[in-house]
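ok so for the tutorial part 2 we go from a plain amino acid sequence to predicted structure tokens. step 1 is just haveing the sequence, like this:
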Amino acid sequence: MLVRALFIAFSMYSRIPVPKTEWNESDMRYVFCFFPFIGVIIGAIVWVLGNFLINIRCGNLLFGCVMSVVPVFITGGIHLDGFLDTLDGINSYGDKEKKLEILKDPNSGAFAIIGGIVYFILSVGFWSEIRIKELSVIPFGYVLSRAFCAIGAVLFPLAKKTGLAAVFGAGADKFKVTVTMIIFIIIDLILAVSVDFIGGVFMLVSAGLCFLYHYFNCVKNFGGITGDLSGYFLQICELVFIIVLVFRGRLI
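step 2 — the prediction. this is what the tokens look like for a chain of 252 residues:
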């Protein structure tokens, strides 16, 4: 059962090849327990590739471009898709029902396109300023963001009874998922602060603030959580980590 839940998590939220498995209700209860493991793999690849590019003295611009797209290649862009849909919904300034309708629209609006461009400009720019010291902490952020994302997915109220959030969140074992994510967060932060104490603390604070914004955005603007909103949070959180660690490296 747990192995099938692992395969479902990887097949749904990444492009990492795993054996195909049928989805059933009992397996869905534990899918989010394995969500952070995808972050572990992304973080490991980011660390190895980043160190390689720095060691061969890759130019800052090329470094920023490559590192910005690594998570997208690994996840297949599923979270980025939610980020773009959410930008259209938020900027519609309609009521909750209107915003939820926009999330279901397969077409990208102007705000999604503008927001996507701005996102990658910021990502490339700040990634190009990353040094070895910051690079050693960044991988832990991919685990931290997914742990917080999973907590929101199972504990926040549902905005609607259909969609990925309903399928994976409503059927999840909320207690076991939450406890597992807290354990992930604790272990991740212990490892992060052992590498860079201040950087690890900064990551925790920024993740907490992003999570509070995530709750406010979900409840106030959409009436609850959806799969797109989870993707939106994940993308925002991971960009904030990069920005915070760049400033941490320059100021402290």
